[in-house]
Backbone:
C-alpha cells in the first residue's frame, strides 16, 4: 500500500505540472475516485467536486496551453528553427467546458431544490444554525464571538444578515441555471458566487471547497476574462489560432 500510495502521489504531481497530461489526467481521476471509494467516511463535498472537475480535465486537452508538455513541444519546434505554434482550438476542449458548465448548473439547482425541503431555509434560521456550530466556525476568535452576540441581541441586523443571507442563497442557487447563460446577468451570478463561497470559506472553515467551487465557476469566463485572471499572476495567456 505504501508503494501504491507513492505512485498515486507521483501521478498527481505529474498531472499538476502537465507531464504526459493525456495519460496522467485519467490516472489522476482514477486515483481520486479510488481514494474516495476506499474510505468514504472521511469524504465530503470537496472530494466529490474534485472528481467531477478531474473528469472534465481528462476529457479536454488540459495540458494543451500551460503545461510542461506544451513547453517541451515549443522547445522542440524552436530547436528545429520553426516559430512556436499557437494553441489549437479543439472539439474536446469545447465539449469538456460545455459539460462542466451544465454539470455546475445541475449542482446548484439540486442544492437549491434540496434546501426547499428544510424548514430552516424557509424561516431564515439556516445560516444561524451553521454560524453558531462549534464544529465548523472559528469560535477561537474573540471577534467572532462578539459578532454572534451582536447579531443575537439585535433583531434588525439578525434579519438583514442571516435571514436575508438564507434567502439570498436560495435565490442564487435556484436562479443560477437560468441567469448564468444570460449576458446581462452572468456577472451578477458570478459575483454572487464569489460572495457566497467567500463567506463559506472564511466563516465555515471550508476553504478548499469554496476554492474548487470558484474554479468550477471559471468555466463561464470568456477568453479575455481568462487572460485577465492569468495576468494577475504574471502569466501571459497562450495565443490561440483562429
Residues:
Amino acid at each position: 500500500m505504501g508503494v501504491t500510495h507513492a505512485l498515486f502521489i507521483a501521478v498527481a504531481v505529474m498531472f499538476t505540472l502537465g507531464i504526459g497530461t493525456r495519460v496522467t489526467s485519467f490516472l489522476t481521476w482514477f486515483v481520486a475516485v479510488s481514494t474516495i471509494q476506499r474510505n468514504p467516511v472521511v469524504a465530503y463535498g470537496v472530494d466529490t467536486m474534485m472528481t467531477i472537475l478531474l473528469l472534465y480535465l481528462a476529457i479536454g486537452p488540459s495540458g494543451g496551453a500551460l503545461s510542461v508538455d506544451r513547453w517541451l513541444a515549443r522547445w522542440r519546434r524552436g530547436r528545429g528553427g520553426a516559430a512556436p505554434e499557437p494553441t489549437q482550438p479543439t472539439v474536446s476542449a469545447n465539449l469538456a467546458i460545455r459539460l462542466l458548465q451544465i454539470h455546475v448548473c445541475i449542482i446548484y439547482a439540486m442544492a437549491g431544490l434540496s434546501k426547499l425541503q428544510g424548514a430552516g431555509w424557509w424561516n431564515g434560521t439556516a445560516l444561524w444554525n451553521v454560524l453558531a456550530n462549534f464544529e465548523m466556525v472559528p469560535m477561537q476568535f474573540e471577534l467572532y464571538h462578539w459578532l454572534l452576540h451582536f447579531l443575537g441581541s439585535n433583531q434588525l441586523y439578525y434579519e438583514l444578515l442571516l435571514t436575508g443571507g438564507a434567502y439570498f442563497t436560495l435565490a442564487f442557487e435556484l436562479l443560477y441555471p437560468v441567469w448564468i447563460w444570460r449576458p446581462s446577468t452572468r456577472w451578477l451570478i458570478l459575483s454572487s458566487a464569489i460572495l457566497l463561497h467567500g463567506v463559506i470559506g472564511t466563516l465555515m472553515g471550508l476553504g478548499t471547497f469554496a476554492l474548487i467551487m470558484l474554479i468550477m465557476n471559471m468555466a463561464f469566463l470568456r477568453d479575455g476574462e481568462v487572460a485577465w485572471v492569468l495576468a494577475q499572476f504574471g502569466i501571459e495567456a497562450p495565443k490561440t489560432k483562429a
